[in-house]
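Record type: monomer structure entry
Structure origin: computed from sequence
Chain ID: A
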Amino acid sequence: MNVARRVFEFLKAGSQAHAQWDYEVSMSILKNRKKLLILIALLLPICVVSFLEAGDMLGSKTAYAPAFYSTNIFLISIAIGLCAGLITGCIGAGGGFVITPALMAAGVKGILAVGTDLFHIFAKAIMGTAVHKKLGNVSVKLALAFLVGSGGGTFIGGYINKSLYDYDPLLSEAFISLVYAVLLGFLGFYALNDFLRARKSKDTGDAHASSSQGLTDLAVKVQNLKVAPMINFDEDFVPGGRRISGVVVALGGVIVGLMAAIMGVGGGFITFPMFVYVFGISSMTTVGTDILQIIFTAGLAAIPQYAIYGYVFYTLAMGMLLGSLIGIQVGALTTKVVKGIHIRGFYAVSILAGFINRVATLPKKMVELEMINISKPVVTTIESIGNIIFWVVVGFFAVWVIAKFITNIGTLRGEEESVAPVLVKEEA
């Protein structure tokens, strides 16, 4: 149980760090007129085409993806981005985990959902990155070693997804759904247990301790591995700095790149806890390096692995970007008038909704793959129930947050500056 608990805290910390990155990037776009004009210029032709209900999808295998691009699918993409943004902004974690399952629940096939989500992350990072603010905290050697590994990992992950899809699109669907079901199930049930314990102990959830400043036992062991080349880092934070094997850092990058390319999540949710808890790197250096790796890892995964093979639905990516910018702003403002314990509960429920949705698709996929023998009406009903639960939970959360925002708009008006999600706090 202790190991599982540590894994949960590891993944939750990464999810929160990725949400912080998402928030900063979104605010960077919203506060910059030039970036907003670029976004409008990109969206304008998409809107025109969508309302004309024209244009077959270029690339991909249209038999296994939405057959054509329409106004409805564009509006759905905005809604998905909006919900993910509300979750990221209000809860401070978990929004990125919802996008790929939501796209799949809307009828977009797994490999296309993964590629589109990665491209959405890459586009957002390029448009709104705040790297210039934190480059002073980036260890160039660490970044290079990590990116060598993550670049290789994206090719491995992309190869796995493409190979499964080429062999059998149904197998690809089942694989991606299974990966998400395992991750979301683990996170969701532990988050629910965390919420119930906090509620029982009268913990309001309004304050959360940041990660320990000291090294974990695992980090000490990792830094004691003397495998050349050795990399010096954190000279500005620790007298004499610290050292770690570049090979170890690169292997960590492989894991991040692999997960990013398979799941379409950018890898940021793994990088932060890996750097802090496993490598023993200060959070200041970690934040800057993590921002850089998201740009390059998402780019390497999205373009060479998916876009050039036609597995990116560009119009959906832009729709999600637009929706998420609005959602994050509203969600972050709403944290000022919502109790922390409620946020903790919604985090658990939203993750579990994604878990139920992906698990509910597996029986049908297994029947179609002839792995089990259950009547099609039964498995179709199970899948439909999973979809309904997912959309009801996500929709209810979105309506609740927007309602809280509207009813408290008088209180929120006059605030000069938006705050980051309450669950996301950078270490001093």
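Annotation 1: The first strand starts at residue 230 and ends at 233.
Annotation 2: Confidence is low (pLDDT under 50) at residues 53-68, 205-213, 416-428.
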